[in-house]
C-alpha cells in the first residue's frame, strides 16, 4: 500500500495549525518571512505547531491554501493591529511631547527592549547615529535593522564611515544580549525622543528666506562673508536663495511660460527693463526669459521695456522680486522643480 493511500483524512484543523501549514508552505517555496516581529510567545506557539505537522493529504493542503488566499483577497485595509504598532506608526504625526510619552508606554519598552523605538525612527535620524556613535555601536544598530532599511541607511552614511561600520560587523558575533539591550536603551534615550525645537525651519531655510527679501548689495555682502567663514553653509544658503539673477541657472526652459503667467504685464516689463540695464547676471536671466517665450511676446516686452526708460533701482528690485516670488510659489506647490547649483555645475 502506498503512502498516499495510508494517510487517513485530516481532523478538523485549528487556526494555529492552519497558520503553521501556511508558514511551512511559504518556507518550502523559498519565501522570506519576518517572524521575528511577532511576540516571542507567538513564535514559540508557531514553532510547536509546525513541529506537530507530519503528513497532510493534498486535499487538505489545497483547502487551507485556498482559505488563506480568500482571506487575503478579502482584505481591503491593513492597520498596525495592536497598540504598540499603532504608536510607532503614528508617532511622527503627533506632537513631539505626546509622541515621546506614547513611545515610552509601549510593551517592548516596559519589557526592557528599546530597539523597536530605534528601528522605527526615520532613516535620516538613524544616519545621525551612524555618524555620531562609536563604530561598534553603529555596527550593532545596523544589525538590528531590516535588510532593506540597513541598506538604505548604509547608502546615506558617508563612504569612509560606512566602510568602517561594515568592517566592524565582523566583531558583533560574540556580543551578549544584555550588551545589545543596554545599547538599545542608551540610543533610545538619546535619539528616540523628538527634540523640542525653537524653530520649525532649518537655519539654511530661515537665512535663505531672509536674504531673498534683502536688498541685493547687503545680500552679496552677507554671502561673501559666509564664503570666507563657512563655505559649506554658504553653498547651502545659496541653494536656498532664489533671486532674479538665478533664473537662468535654476529654472528649466520649458517652465518659463508658466513662471511668468501669474506676473502682471506691467510688473514683468519693469523687471525686464531693469534687468537688461543691470549687471551681466541680471541681463542673462532677462534674455533667458525672453528667449523662452513666443517671439511675438518677446518683441512686445522688449519694446515696452525700451519705452519705460530709466527704472529706479528700488522699483526694479521690487518688480524682479515679484517675478521670483511667483516662481517660488510654483516651486512650493510642486508645479515646477528648481535645479540646484550642483546640477547647474554638472550641466556646464
TrEMBL record:
Location(s), subcellular: Bacterial flagellum basal body; Cell membrane
Domain Flagellar motor switch protein FliG C-terminal: 224-337
InterPro entries, alphabetized: Flg_Motor_Flig (IPR000090), Flg_Motor_Flig_C (IPR023087), FliG_a-hlx (IPR011002), FliG_M (IPR032779), FliG_N (IPR028263)
Keywords: Bacterial flagellum, Cell membrane, Chemotaxis, Flagellar rotation, Membrane
Positions of the Flagellar motor switch protein FliG middle domain: 124-191
Coiled coil (UniProt feature): none
Membrane topology of the entry: Peripheral membrane protein
Pfam entry (one): FliG_C
Span of domain Flagellar motor switch protein FliG N-terminal: 12-112
SUPFAM superfamilies tied to this protein: FliG
Described function: FliG is one of three proteins (FliG, FliN, FliM) that forms the rotor-mounted switch complex (C ring), located at the base of the basal body. This complex interacts with the CheY and CheZ chemotaxis proteins, in addition to contacting components of the motor that determine the direction of flagellar rotation.
Protein family: Belongs to the FliG family.
Protein name: Flagellar motor switch protein FliG
Organism: Yoonia phaeophyticola
